[in-house]
């Protein structure tokens, strides 16, 4: 669905609410005056985003900077769509610097769960 990012989901649209992320601890890694640091950030970005290429074809690509912040004893608090909360450990991150010059791993930013968008998708 090309306009999926523009269309809100109703609670009834979420097929697996106990396995779909609603929110989590988040931050955005930045480099400020050569130091790795973070700023406030409101979104738990999925590992992959859709990229539209020439001819209008869309493909999944790992272009997102990780924003889940593993700040509580190496874990992140995650709120799920059914209302329960869990403490998750980092499973993976993007290597190297993000768009803002920060090494995400060095400030505890990454993702939990499988290396796909399954936990961030309401289908």
Please give a handful of descriptors for the protein shown.
about 120 residues; mainly beta; three-stranded antiparallel sheet; two-stranded antiparallel sheet; globular
Written account of the structure:
The chain has 123 residues and is mainly β. It has one domain (16-114). The protein has strands at 21-24, 28-32, 35-39, 49-52, 58-61, 68-69, 75-80, 85-89, 109-110. The protein has a three-stranded antiparallel β-sheet with strand order 1-7-8, with no helix packed on it. Strands 2-3 form a two-stranded antiparallel sheet. Strand 4 (49-52) and strand 5 (58-61) form a beta hairpin. The protein is globular and about 45 Å long.
Task: Tell me how many strands there are.
Answer: 9
Low-pLDDT residue spans: none
The end-to-end span amounts to: 12 Å
The best one-word shape is globular
Number of DSSP helical runs: 0
- Beta-strand content: 25-35%
> What is the averaged pLDDT score?
89
- Share in helix: under 10%
* Number of structural domains: 1
Main β-sheet description: 3 strands, antiparallel
Across the major sheet, the strand order is 1-7-8
Main structural class: mainly beta
Alpha carbon gyration radius: 15 Å
- SSE order in H/E notation? EEEEEEEEE
């Amino acid at each position: 669905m090309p306009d999926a990012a523009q269309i809100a989901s109703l609670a009834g649209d979420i097929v697996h609410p106990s396995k779909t992320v609603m929110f989590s601890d988040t931050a955005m890694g930045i480099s400020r005056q050569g130091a790795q640091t973070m700023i406030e950030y409101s979104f738990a970005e999925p590992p992959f985003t859709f990229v539209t290429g020439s001819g209008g074809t869309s493909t999944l690509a790992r272009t997102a900077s990780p924003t889940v912040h593993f700040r509580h004893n190496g874990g992140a608090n995650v709120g799920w769509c059914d209302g329960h909360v869990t403490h998750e450990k980092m499973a993976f991150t993007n290597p190297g610097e993000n768009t803002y010059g920060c090494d995400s791993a060095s400030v505890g930013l990454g993702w939990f769960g499988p290396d796909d968008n399954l936990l961030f998708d309401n289908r």
